[in-house]
Every structure is written in structure tokens, then in C-alpha cells.
Sequence to fold (296 residues):
Amino acid sequence: MHDMGAARERWHPRWPWRPRGSERAWIAAFLIPYAAVFVVFVGYPVIFGLWMGSSPTLYADLARDPKFLPTMLNTLIYTGIGVNVTMFGAVLLSGYFMDRSRWIKALLVLFMLPWALPAIPAFLAWHWMLVGHWGFLNSLLDKAFGIEGPIWFNDYWSALGSNIVATIWKWMPFWTLIFLAGRMAIPQEIHDAADVDGAVGMQRFAYVTFPLLGNLYLICTLLSTLWLIGDFTTVFFVSGGAPARTTEVLATYGTHLAFDSGDPPLGSAAMLSILPLLIPLAILLIRRVRRSEVQL
Fold:
């Protein structure tokens, strides 16, 4: 019996377990490659970018640039409208796709295609659909209705609106799928109790469904804001900042400074200038996720 107890202790050590000898070597051999990849591809670019944009004189130069404040405003408008319209539309459409009929399921597959498409060719298609009088949309208006469409990228608001509509078109399917999963996780008993109490239609959505999705809605909104506020692809490939770079956002503006103007530190500073807004959002997102884990 004593030998069996010793064997059990040898194969099932007591916790806390501390690695010894060859075990430490195996752990190091497993972790070092991952740590090296993280340092090279994550840590170094972030630290180098922060270092390049760390000089206070760079931000003084940005403040003197007449394009900086309008670009910051563009970023806030683009992000604010894009995120809120996307989230609100997604949570409403998720209720529509709760229908279990076959044609609704088939429609959901088609609805997910914009999100499944690669971003660059999708936004290039948007650009060629709207560019000039020969774009697809203006050609369709002319041939089908005899209407001469506007030159979309020659006006500030129509160009900015094109960027916003394109990003909503791209990302709304993804967030709709997230909210659809959230709706499906709500127990059916809650809906049955709401039906008994007479809550139907918009009443059930306002007083039952949305409060239960509220935490998920907030997390998705914060996460979408963090993604969209640094978005480069949409603006660069849809409007290209037209007209005359008046619809640029910080990501495209910083890229122009870094590469076209040959000033990488100033470009880095331009993109880092949004950090005072991003850091509180990231902290709020982390706290909200931790609070959700505690509630679960």
C-alpha cells in the first residue's frame, strides 16, 4: 500500500505544481517560439510606432496643419454614424432572421456575402460604381429613369456618405450574425412569459429582448468603434479622400504624411493622436467583458 501511495504521488503531484529539470526545458522550448513571434510581429511594431510619434514637437506641427482638425472631425463623423447605424440596423435585422423558414435562411446566406467578400475588391467595386458619370449607379439612373446622377466624389457630403454607406454594407452582416446568436441564447421561457403578459411586437423587443441584449450591444459597439476609428481600407479605396482629400480620416491622412510626404514620424503622430479616445474605450471594453464574465 505504501508503494502504491508513492506511485500515485509520483504520477499525480500535489498543487501548486513546480516544473523541474527537463520539464522546464520542454516548457521553454514550447514557449520561446511563440514569445519570439509576439515580440517580432506585435511588440516591436507597436513600440517602434509609439517611439516614432513620441516627440511633442510632432503634435505641434500637426496642430499647425490646416488639414489635421478637419481630418479628426471626419474620423469622428465617419466612426460615430457608421458604428451606430450599423449596430442599430444589425440588432433589428437579427430579429427578422430569427424566422426559421427556408427562404429566410437562404436570404441570410446571401446577406452574409458582403462580409465574406475580401475588403479591397469589394470597396474597389464601390468606387467604380460611384465614380463619374460613367459609374454603374449613374449609368443605371440615366438608362432606367433618364436621371443624370451627381458626381458623387465631387461633393464633400456625398463622398463622406459613400464611405459611411460602404462600411455599413460591409460590416452590418457580421454584427447581425452576432446579435442573432445573442437572441438565440435567450431562453424561450422568457418569450413565453412575455406573451402571457401581453408583450408582443415592439413591446417585447423594448422591454424584454433589448434589455437582455444590452450588455452584448454595448460590447459590440465599443469593439466596432475601436475597429472603425482606425479604418484605412474603406476611405482609401472608396472615395480616396475626394474631393481634394477633404474626406480623409486619420488612417489615410497619416499614411499620406508617412509615405507621400516622406515624414514617417509625423504620420505616426497623426495616427497616434486618437489614442486619448481609444484608451478609455479599450479600458471600458475590458471592464465590461470582465463584468459579463462575473455575471455568467
